[in-house]
Amino acid sequence: MNQPGQNFIGDNYLTADEITPTSNINAYGRIYEIQGVDVFTRDWYRAKYGYEFSIGEIEMPAIPEQVEIQKPPYNGFGDEIDTLGQMYRLVPQKPKIDFFKAVDNDKNILRFTARFNTRVPEDFDRRFIISFYLSDDSISIYEPAQKNSGIIPGKFLHRRKYKNVDKNMEFITPTDMPIGGDVKINGHSFHILSCDEYTSSYLNGHLI
Predict the structure, then answer these.
(1) What is the pTM of this model?
(2) How far apart are CA 5 and CA 35, in angstroms?
(3) Rounded distance, CA 169 to CA 184, Å?
(4) Domains of the chain
(5) Closest Cα partner for 173 from 97, 112, 113, 84?
(6) What distance, in Å, lies between the first and last C-alpha atoms of the chain?
(7) Phi (first) and psi of residue 128, to 5 degrees
């Protein structure tokens, strides 16, 4: 006795010997006419049953060209890696961090003092503290108070990773900020003036 859902199967099954070059196949009420087979099937039927099938002329569809994935532009929310997460999942997951790098470099911060590369009088004497966090390669910039400058001190750039427009848009590294050198961060051109003792020791060991 057939189980529920199996009543349509019946007792008779189509076998290989019943398929001939001149027969049609009845599958669920649809009639299929055999117009050709592949080389392996022709040789197998010839050796097994003496049937002579013709080779089919249907060409298999060509493999479609791979479409290059377009990276979405940074939308300004979170970090750039958050925006790229939308390429891989409908619901983006929290970016994975380099755990060992974060642990080994926790609280290790390189600090530089810098000024603007500018001829604007009111901006020439402004000073900035650039902090580079070795735990995740992020950067933040703080502007300390200057007497009689009229500039409100405080956070100048939010902490995140920034790209170097002069280095193939790669993320900025400490070697991009040598003492006496220039670096562009988020559209602002800075001249590096000095650094603390820890930063100097780090740069001496890592600059090529």
Answers:
(1) 0.59
(2) 33
(3) 11
(4) 1-60 (no CATH), 99-206 (2.30.29.170)
(5) 112
(6) 82
(7) -135, 150
Q: How far, in Å, CA of 24 to CA of 35, rounded?
A: 10
Average pLDDT value for residue range 160-164: 90
Extract the tokens encoding 193.
């003036």
Distance CA(199)–CA(208), nearest Å, equals 15
Residue 165's contacts (CB-CB under 8 Å, 6 or more residues apart) are: 184
Instruction: Give the dihedral sign, CA 117/121/124/126.
Output: negative
* CA 136 – CA 162 distance, rounded (Å): 12
Contacts of 28 (CB under 8 A, 6+ apart): none
Q: Which two tokens stand for residue 200?
A: 């100097």
Compute the residue count for the chain: 208
Confidence of residue 48 (pLDDT cuts 50, 70, 90): very high
Overall average pLDDT of the 156-162 stretch: 91
- Write the DSSP string, the chain: -PPTT-TTT-S----GGG--TT-EEEETTEEEE---B-HHHHHHHHHHT---PPBP-PPPPPPPPPPPPPPPPP-SSS-HHHHHGGGT-SSPPPPPP-HHHHHHTTT-EEEEEEEE----HHHHT-EEEEEEETTTTEEEEEE---TT--PPPEEEEEEE--EETTTTTEEP-GGG--TT-EEEETTEEEEEEEE-HHHHHHHHHH--
Q: Are 71 and 84 in contact (CB under 8 A)?
A: yes
